[in-house]
Amino acid sequence: MELLAIVAIACCLLGGIGTIVHTDNINKIIMFALLETGLIGLIVSFRYLDVAIVSSLLEPIGTVILLLGIVKYEYILKNKKRYSKEIPVLTK
Fold first, then answer.
1. How far apart are CA 19 and CA 26, in angstroms?
2. pTM exceeding 0.85
3. Contact, 29 vs 6, CB < 8 A?
4. Rounded to an integer, what distance in angstroms lies between the CA atom of residue 9 and that of residue 38?
5. Which pLDDT value is given to residue 6?
6. DSSP collapsed to 3 states, 42-60
């Protein structure tokens, strides 16, 4: 087995275990990014370079969107404890 495939599998395993084990949301996203990096390495080791390029371009965008969502969620939870017991529902 190639060295790249072994390292990519190790990254996938570490990222998957870290995502399950960590309780902090930011750490979960960092471990999820490690898992995605291992997945991209596996795609490259099987020589699907066009798929690897697209996933390498889209993976940081997805990570940034997840980080923005987590930051907004934690901000809402912090303000919910200070002002009221219910999260406001934005409906018409």
1. 10
2. no
3. no
4. 6
5. 95
6. HHHHCCCHHHHHHHHHHHH
